[in-house]
Amino acid sequence: MLTLSQFYQSIFGCKTYKISLDAGCTCPNRDGTKGTGGCIFCSQAGSGDFTAGRSLTITEQLEQGKKFVENKLRGRSGERQGKYIAYFQSFTSTYGDPRELLAKYHEALSCAGVAGLAVATRPDCLSPAILRGLAEISRSHFVQIELGLQTSNETTGHLINRCYTNQDYIDTVHRIREAAPSIHIVTHLIFGLPGESEEDMLNSVKFVVEQNLYHASPSQHSCSETRSNCSTGAVSQPSAVAPYVSGSDDIDPDLRLYDKWGLKITSLYIIKNTRLAQLYEAGEYEPLTKERYFALLQKALPLLPQNSVVHRLTGDPPKSQLLAPDWTTDKKRVLNDLLTLLKSHNKILLL
């Protein structure tokens, strides 16, 4: 079993740290384009509670992030500074002027020690211009695109005010694969959304697995059906864009980038000043207990194929803003319990 740190090390050749950045974006379900208020669970910082802040330039944010990593490592034996992934995390980090955003991505990659790029977005906000730009970047740098899906239940999607459909997600996964198969796609799911059953949550995992089985463009696909319905399995690697791999001569062939896709799962937590907080305080929503969440993971993980990379199985809510559940604040204990849980599953996971 490999850790996510080992997965990144196989790409970059050393320990790698993600630094959260704010590109100054908003979201179409906040600014009135598709809705207002954002997703019912999202904080006022748009999930960017640990960034240095949009008042700083990208370079300044990165420098602050580096200092934070250095301070954490100080005094830890056996750990040394490595490389960084610039993680555009806040709000929808592809929602804006393509020229300005691509300039910020390139600015991040020009900073010392930054070896890769991770961009968090929505399936309905990856414009052709930005995707072309990220595809070009992927020729020389590691690129990770994170898509917030949260659930495959369309009724729940409407309830949480995400304002996009499953088809948006399907289409975007396919567009990314066609543009640059070396881009590492990571999908976000949330367990414990209001009204969801165990079947709903496991169906969301199955849905993500199904959509990420396919890695070729339509002309290279071996099935006559559309890829959203085809069940023939994985197909050969397209050769249009070679995967970026640092030190590729030494890489384990089982860790090739092009046939790896990622998944983040977290239990829903309740942040102050959100619509979800109102439901919780009115007694209309109760979050998952740790025992229930772990029981769901026990059923979800066996659904994942060997080429999946589990990036995260626990969130990191800001303690000052958290209402519930309390168990999510003890990250060290949660991670230790997750390690015990995952010993029987041969996955790449975050420690």
User: Spans with pLDDT under 50 lasting ≥5 residues?
Assistant: 215-255
On the 0 to 100 scale, the average pLDDT is 84
Q: Tell me the strand percentage band.
A: 15-25%
What order do the helices and strands follow?
HEHEHEHEHHEHEEHHEEH
State Rg: 19 Å
From the spread of the alpha carbons, the general shape counts as: globular
Topology summary:
Blueprint: H1 4-12, E1 16-21, H2 58-73, E2 83-88, H3 98-110, E3 114-121, H4 128-137, E4 142-150, H5 154-159, H6 166-179, E5 184-191, H7 198-211, E6 261-267, E7 270-271, H8 275-281, H9 290-300, E8 308-312, E9 322-324, H10 331-342
Parallel strand pairs: 1-2, 2-3, 3-4, 4-5, 5-6, 6-8
Antiparallel strand pairs: 7-9
Helix pairs in contact: 3-4
Task: Provide structural commentary.
The protein is an alpha/beta fold and 351 residues long. The chain has 10 helices and 9 strands. It has helices spanning 4-12, 58-73, 98-110, 128-137, 154-159, 166-179, 198-211, 275-281, 290-300, 331-342; strands spanning 16-21, 83-88, 114-121, 142-150, 184-191, 261-267, 270-271, 308-312, 322-324. A 7-stranded parallel β-sheet has the order 1-2-3-4-5-6-8. The chain has a two-stranded antiparallel sheet with strand order 7-9. Helix 3 packs parallel to helix 4. The longest helix is centred in the N-terminal third of the chain and has 16 residues, at 58-73. Residues 215-255 have low confidence and may be disordered.
Name its key features.
two-stranded antiparallel sheet; 351 residues; alpha/beta
Summarize this structure briefly:
This protein is an alpha/beta fold and 351 residues long.
